[in-house]
Each structure stands twice: as C-alpha cells, then as structure tokens.
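Lecture notes, continued. The same structure-token format from the folding unit now serves as the input rather than the output. Read the line below as a description of shape only.
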C-alpha cells in the first residue's frame, strides 16, 4: 500500500466483507524465556459463508 487512503480503502472493503469478526488468542505454554501463543480469527461473509 502506498498511502493512507489506500490502506483505509483496503480495510473498509475487508471489514465490510468480514462480518462478526472474532479474534481468538490462546496461551499454550511458557517456560523460561519462551511463550507459545495461538492466534486465530473467524468471521462470516455477507452471503453467510
């Protein structure tokens, strides 16, 4: 993306398409200086898929 306007347009299209967006974060384990984290997100589009 080359400009703020392009970024805004991209995110507007993305968020209009991805309805009821949900971010899931799960802490798996941690030991010493290491942390295991799982990230996932889910949504449905305007056709219900």
């Amino acid at each position: 993306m080359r400009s703020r306007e392009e970024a805004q347009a991209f995110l507007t299209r993305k968020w209009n398409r991805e309805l009821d967006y949900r971010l899931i974060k799960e802490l798996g384990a941690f030991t010493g200086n290491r942390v295991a984290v799982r990230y996932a997100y889910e949504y449905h589009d305007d056709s219900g898929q």
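Point for the exam: Residues 4-44 form one domain.
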